[in-house]
Write a structure and sequence with these properties.
globular, mainly alpha, 2 domains, 10 helices
Length: 259
C-alpha cells in the first residue's frame, strides 16, 4: 500500500507543477521535486495515522469541537511546508552546476532533451550562485522577525492567558512559527471569512487572527493560550504592536535601501 501511495504521489506532485506552469517546463526536470514531495508526504501520512488520533483527542478535550479544526489546520500547514520545501530543493537541484548534480541529472536524464544538461550561466539554465542574495532583503526579513518577537514578548507580558514557556530562543521560535502560520494559512482564512468580515465591519478579522494564534499555540509547546476571547485579545495586541513597530522602522529601511 505504501509503495502504491508513493508512486501515486510521484505522479501527482510531478504533474501538478507541470500543469500549473502551462507545460512550458519539460516534465523530467520536475521529477526530483516530485519524488522528494512524494517520499515526504508518504512518510508523513504514515506518521499521521499514528499521532493524529491522540492529537485530535487532546485538542478536543482542551478546545472542544474547535480543537478538531486546529488539528486539521495544523496538519495542512505541515503538508504545505513539506511541499514548499520539496519544490525549493528540487529547483536548487535543477539549477545546480555541481559535478554530482550534473552527473546525476545526466545519468537519470532529468533535463530537457532539446537543451541537454545546461552549464551554469547558460540561457535557460541555472543562475550563478549568489546573484539572487540581496543583503537588504535578508536584513528586512531579520528586522521583521525581531519586530514580531518583540510583539510576542510584550503581549505575553501584559495579556492574560498568553504565556511563552522559555527564554529568548523560545520567543524567536514562537514568532517564526506565528509568521509562517500567518503567511500560509492567514490569506486563506481571511478570504474564507471575508463575507462575515465585511458584514461585521472588519471586526471578524480579529477572530481570524485569534484563530491563527490558537493554531500556532497548538503547533508548539512553547506558547500557551487561555480562553478564546483572551486569544483574540492577544492576537490583536500582537498585530497592533507589530504594525506600530513596522511603521516606525519603515523610514529606516527606506533610507537603508537608498544607500
Amino acid at each position: 500500500m505504501i509503495p502504491l501511495s508513493a508512486m501515486a504521489g510521484l505522479v501527482l506532485w510531478t504533474s501538478i507543477p507541470w500543469l500549473l506552469m502551462n507545460r512550458e517546463v519539460y516534465w523530467r526536470r520536475l521529477i526530483a521535486a516530485g519524488a522528494l514531495a512524494s517520499t515526504a508526504t508518504t512518510i508523513y501520512s504514515v506518521a499521521t495515522a499514528v499521532y493524529m488520533p491522540d492529537l485530535v483527542d487532546r485538542y478536543t478535550a482542551e478546545f472542544g469541537l474547535f480543537g478538531i479544526t486546529i488539528a486539521i489546520i495544523g496538519w495542512l500547514l505541515v503538508i504545505a511546508m513539506v511541499l514548499v520545501a520539496s519544490s525549493s530543493v528540487g529547483a536548487e537541484f535543477d539549477s545546480s552546476p555541481d559535478p554530482w548534480a550534473m552527473s546525476l541529472k545526466t545519468r537519470l536524464r532529468l533535463y530537457d532533451p532539446e537543451l541537454g544538461p545546461l552549464p551554469a550561466g547558460a540561457v535557460g539554465g541555472p543562475t550563478p550562485r549568489g546573484e539572487f542574495v540581496n543583503p537588504f532583503l535578508l536584513g528586512r526579513l531579520l528586522a521583521n522577525w525581531l519586530v514580531i518577537t518583540f510583539a510576542v514578548w510584550l503581549t505575553a507580558s501584559i495579556a492574560p492567558g498568553i504565556v511563552v514557556y522559555g527564554g529568548f530562543v523560545t520567543y524567536l521560535w514562537v514568532s517564526l512559527l506565528l509568521g509562517l502560520v500567518n503567511a500560509v494559512i492567514g490569506p486563506v482564512a481571511h478570504l474564507i471569512a471575508l463575507p462575515v468580515t465585511v458584514v461585521t465591519l472588519g471586526l471578524f478579522a480579529l477572530v481570524v487572527n485569534g484563530l491563527l494564534l490558537a493554531v500556532t499555540a497548538a503547533l508548539t509547546a512553547g506558547l500557551g493560550v487561555g480562553s478564546f476571547l483572551g486569544t483574540v485579545v492577544g492576537a490583536t495586541l500582537i498585530a497592533s504592536v507589530t504594525a506600530a513597530l513596522d511603521f516606525l522602522v519603515s523610514p529606516i529601511r527606506s533610507r537603508s535601501d537608498r544607500v
